[in-house]
Amino acid sequence: MPNKLFLASEFFLLFILMPISLAIPFNIWIKVGMVLAGFIYILWQLKKSENIQFRIKKYMNWKSFWRRIGVTFIIVAIATIGFVLFTEPSVLFYVPLNNPGLFIMILFVYTLFSVWPQEIIYRTFFFERYAPLFHNKTLFIFINAIVFSLAHLFFRNTLVLLLTFIGGIIFGFTYLKYRSTTAVSIEHAIYGNWLFTVGMGQMLAFPGMEA
Predict the structure, then answer these.
(1) How far apart are CA 117 and CA 7, in angstroms?
(2) N or C: which terminus of the chain carries fewer CB neighbours within 10 A?
(3) Cα 115 from Cα 190, distance rounded (Å)
């Protein structure tokens, strides 16, 4: 394991400096190159670690996991339906009802190319890599939520930053409880895809989500 100074520098570069730089206007292909280079570096570091395996755990308490997901999802569903009805009722369930083909494609693309990479970076890598820097679990999760929200700074949308901060707290607790990339990716996919379903997808800049 690298020393704390190296870890702190790496943390600042990957989780503070890079997200902020992506919010600054400059060549999009340079940004893509930066993100790809960062992701490849993270995968390389994960591959080097003997403690991290991307297998579904045989003895994970899936009953507890699904019970927790069920309760949280009910709260999320009620809150988001109420929010859409209050702010813009015309978009409620608009895409699944009016363009089911696009809706299914968005769910697939979002789950595979957004959720899974994000959970590898912001839960698996973050919590396994930077544990030596944060000895307080609550602070660790709070910092994770902040940098997860910061990763969405380029959207320039306050509600997106708030939602991703809340999501970061939820996903952080899930990962530390179950230590499973699969479990936290499932949870992230369920809540994220629900936002597209209920009519909040336009705030995440997905195409075709406007009514």
Answers:
(1) 21
(2) N
(3) 10
d(CA 85, CA 9): 45
Q: Quick one: residue 182, left, alpha or beta (phi over 0 = left, psi -120 to 50 = alpha)? A: alpha
What span, in angstroms and rounded, lies between the C-alpha atoms of 200 and 209?
Answer: 8
Residues 113-129 have pLDDT tens digits of 999 999 999 999 999 99
| The overall pTM is greater than 0.85 | yes
Give the start-to-end residue ranges of the domains of the chain.
4-204
63-77, pLDDT tens digit by residue?
A: 999 999 999 999 999
75-84 long-range Cβ contacts below 8 angstroms, 24+ apart: 76/191, 76/194, 77/194, 77/198, 80/194, 80/195, 80/198, 80/200, 81/198, 83/200, 84/198, 84/199, 84/200
